[in-house]
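Need tokens for this chain, all 257 residues.
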Amino acid sequence: MNTHGLSQLYDQLTPSERLPLIMAAAARDDEAEKQRLSAAAPEVSFRVPNYYPLAKALSEAVDYHLLTLLDLAAQFWQWWGIWMSYLGRHSSAGNPKTGRRRKTDADRLPEWRARGIARYFASRFVAHRHGWKQSCSAMNIDSEVQLEQLRAEMVLRTAGMLTGAGMGAVKVLVELQNDAAQPAAVRRRSARDVLEMGLKFREIAQLEQRLAAIEAQMAGVPGLQLEQPPVHHELEDPSPLASQKGAPHDQTTATPD
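Here are the structure tokens for all 257 residues:
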């Protein structure tokens, strides 16, 4: 296809028309066509504060950091549960009353592997937490502020979505009320659950905002500062690993296969 004649009209393309053409040219390795489409695009200028790039990068770093922590925590608890299942399975091994033979090292290898992997993910979780604190400290930023703001935004977003879904739940209830011949117990319970969850999340979000405002006001009054509860974000010494009777306490770290 000869596109040289059409290239004279490339400056008239809209963004929604230009982008698919650029992607198509890149897919067929037509670098010349891709360059013509890109060069003919009108330029748009933006004015932003000088701290905008840093704020944008920090926001994306917070998202990635929180997602990483959630993934590592899920992996840790998964392998910790597998390890505990092996411990429970082997707890009666070697008991004369049960008549079972004592487990050999080969038999306990899966248990040790699960323990090592759980410790591996726990150490990675702690390393990410320390790394985040050091990065924020270098920029003179409180390491918990961004995370708390992101958690609050997630709660508000969830509350808004559930509240919006409440209108559909009301519609379902009205339709079921008018259509008595239709057996819809499951739909009725689902609609009621959506309503209850929406109201609950909305109340929680509003309560958090009010508590934050009260704490901010009381922070400036001598003698009325609220005592902060202990925060258990880190896995410096994972309590499940340290509290299990008979659990090994060596310092080796195993990596998953």
